[in-house]
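Instructor's aside before we start: the two examples that follow are unrelated to each other. I chose them only because their records fit on one page, so don't look for a connection. First example below.
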Amino acid sequence: MPKRFVVAASEFSELSRSDTGFELAEGLTAAAQQLHQTSSPNATLHTAVRLAVHILPGVEYAGISVIESEARRQTLAWTDEVVRSADELNAGREHHPYWNRLWTAPVARIEDSAAADGEGDLALSGLGLRSVLSLRLRADRRRLTVLTAYARAPRAFDESATRIGRLFTAHVGIALDSATLREQLTEAMRTRDLIGQATGILMERLDIDASESFASLVRTSQRENVKLRDLARRIVDASEGE
C-alpha cells in the first residue's frame, strides 16, 4: 500500500500562536471540508490543484502527476495548460536530479529555473515558469504521486510555503485515500449485485442451484480469461436484450 506522508503538527507550532496561524488553520479546515466532499478520487485531485493555487503562498499554477520508475509520467489534474506543457517537457526526464530527490525526500524546489549554476531547468524557464515546488502525495517503490506548484517569479516559494504545502498535501492524501476507499466499496457493491443477477439468470436457464451457477461463471471466466465482473455484465446485458 502506498505510504502517505503526514506532517506532525509540532513541526508548525510557531504558526499556532499568531493570527496568521489561525487564518491558516481556518483555510486548511475549509480546504479539508471541500476535499472530503468530492465524489471520486479524480474529483479530489482536481479540487486539490484548484485549492493549492488559493492556499499555498506564491502559487500561480498547480498540477498533480504520477511519475513511474520506468520513466513514464502522467498528468492527472491541472489548473492551466502550461502545467501539462511542463509535464510533457519533463516526460522521460524522471531521472533528472530534481525529480530524483522526490524518491528520497518529501519536497523538492527549483528556486530559479533560469539559473546557470546547474540548479535551473531551461525547459521550464522557456515556459515562463521560474519557481517550482513539488510535494509528494504518495510513494511506493515504482510510483510517485506528486503535487507540483509553479510561479512565474523566481524564488517564489520560501520555507513557509513549503511547510504550508506539506500540511496541505497531508489533507489531500487523507481525502484521496477516503475517496478511493468509497469508490472501491461502491464498485464492490455493484459487482456483487451484477454477479448475483448473472447467477440468477444461469440458474433459471440451466436449471441449476446457486452454487453450481456461480461455479459455472468462475469456470467460464477462467477459460475465456475474462474478469468475472465483465462476464456477468455480458450475461445480464444479453438477457435484457432478449
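Example two begins here.
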Amino acid sequence: MTSETQQTEAVTTETEAEPGDLRNLIEGARVVLWDFDGPVCRLFAGHSAERVARDLVDWLEGRGLHGLLDESARESLDPHVVLRAVDRRHPGSDLVAELEERLTQEELKAAASARPTPYADPLVRTWTAVGARLAITTNNSPRVVKEYLTSRGLLPCFAPHIYGRTQELRHLKPHPHCIQRALNATGAAPATALMIGDTPSDLLAARAAGVPFLGYARNERKNKVLREAGAEMIVGSLEPVLKAVWAAGQA
C-alpha cells in the first residue's frame, strides 16, 4: 500500500490560498464534500481515461451508432463526455444504461491501480477525528468509490454518504444534484459545508448549491483552468489543508 503522504508526482503549483483564509474556510465547514477522482485519488493513474473514452467510441461505432456523437465527442479524451453525448440523444435508454455499465466496469478496473492523492488519506482521517462529517459527491460510479475507499480503509469516514453517478445522467456535475443529495442527507445548510474539487464542473455545481469551494490543482494546467472558471481559493497540495485542519482541531 502506498504511504499516505508519499508524493505520487511532482506538484509545481504553489498554494494560492493564504493560511488565514484557508483556516477560516475550514473552521466554517461542518460537512466536507469531496469530489473523488482528483482530490481523493487519481483514478486513472494506471488505466488511461483517454483509452476508455476511445473504447466507448469504438464500441458505439462497431454497432453503427457513430452518428450519435458529434466530432467533439468522438475526439474527446473524457469518457463522461461520450456518455453524456449519447444520453442527450437517447435519455434513459437501454443503450445509455449499457454504455454506463461499460464505463463503470472500466472504472472498477482503474480503481485497482488508482493512486492516492498525496495527503488525502491522513486529511480524511484527521477531518473525521475532529468531528467533521464527510461525503463523496462525484460523477464516478458509487460502486467504484466504495471499492477504492474500502481498499484504503477509509470507507467508515464517508459511509453512507457516497453520492455518485446514477441512471439520471443529466444530473452529473455541473448539475448540483449530488451536492444537494449530500446536504439533504446530512441536514447541513450550504454555508456550513465545503466542496473540494479539481474541475470547473465541481466549482459550478458547488456554486449552484450555494456551497463554498476549495480548488485542488495538482499542476499548473489545472490551476489555470480553475482560476479561469472563477475559483477564488486553490491549493496545489492537500498538505496545508491537513495542517489547517489539525490546527483548528487543537484550538
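The chain has a mean pLDDT of 91.
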